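User: Hey, quick favor. My workstation is busy. Could you predict this chain's structure for me?
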Amino acid sequence: MLFFSVEWLSKFCFMEANMKAWLRKRQQEQTEETAEQVRWMQQERSIAVAVLVVTPAGIPLVRDPRRAFALDEPQVRPVYWKLPGGKGEDRETPEEAAARELLQETGIRVSCKDLSILWRENRGSHDYIIFRADLVRIPRLASLGDEGEEVQMFSAERILQMRDFFPSQKRIIEQHLLALVVFAG
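Assistant: No problem, here it is.
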């Protein structure tokens, strides 16, 4: 038969009550931490990315003629050649989004380590990031991107002369293209 003193039982009950209070407090703290993480994730900014890929054969660009007509706009919009890219998806890092978009639109596979940031800009609703990837081998290009984009290689010199290259991207990467032309010449 076990025999416990009243003093021991009261200490045990006190410790048990303290332990329960501590557990309730810790659960509350964890709930608050989780709520803070959710708030932080909701505040994370969306991203848009593009990739300037430099290869021995040139620079791949994409063009999507299907976007010439917007469903809600009766006017024809210009169709531009542009760097491969797009919007980031849930929980993707900018590098992961760039590598995924590049693969989907051109068939070119790069790792996140192959990408370096050329340009980063806060555009209010999102961050816009242009990466550069230098490839030593000529990649095999897809003839069409996963959404029907045309894919072609162009020299840096040709891109600088193009009137149908996306103007905002051209302004950003122009100095890099000029350096490639000078280096090649």
